[in-house]
Design goal:
The chain is mostly helical and 84 residues long. It is built from three helices and no strands. Helix 1 crosses helix 2 and helix 1 crosses helix 3. The protein is globular, with a radius of gyration of 17 Å. It starts with 33 loop residues before the first helix and ends in a 10-residue tail after the last helix.
Length: 84
C-alpha cells in the first residue's frame, strides 16, 4: 500500500506531521501531551490491533506501544475495585 503523501498527488501534497523516525539525532525527545497519552492508552487497552492499525495508517502520529506500556506501568495498582 503506497503512502498518501507521495509526490504523485501534486506539487503541494506534503506531510503535515513530521515522522519521529526521520528527525535528526540532536532533535529533543518527543514529549506527549498527557491528554493524548490518556486517549491513546484508552484505545490501546480496548484493542491493541485497532491501535496498531491506526498507528500504521499514517494519519496520526501516535505514541509507541512501548511508551504507552511505560505510562500504564507507572500507575500503582491495588487489590479490589477502589484504592485504599
Amino acid at each position: 500500500m503506497g503512502s498518501i503523501w507521495s509526490t504523485s498527488h501534486g506539487p503541494h501534497a506534503t506531510q503535515t506531521t513530521p515522522s519521529v523516525n526521520h528527525l535528526p539525532h540532536h532533535f529533543p525527545q518527543a514529549r506527549w501531551d498527557p491528554l493524548v497519552i490518556r486517549w491513546a492508552i484508552s484505545v490501546y487497552i480496548r484493542s491493541k490491533a485497532a491501535y496498531k492499525a491506526m498507528s500504521e495508517a499514517g494519519f496520526l502520529v501516535l505514541p509507541s506501544g512501548r511508551t504507552l506500556r511505560r505510562h500504564i506501568n507507572k500507575i500503582k495498582q491495588h487489590d479490589g475495585a477502589l484504592p485504599p
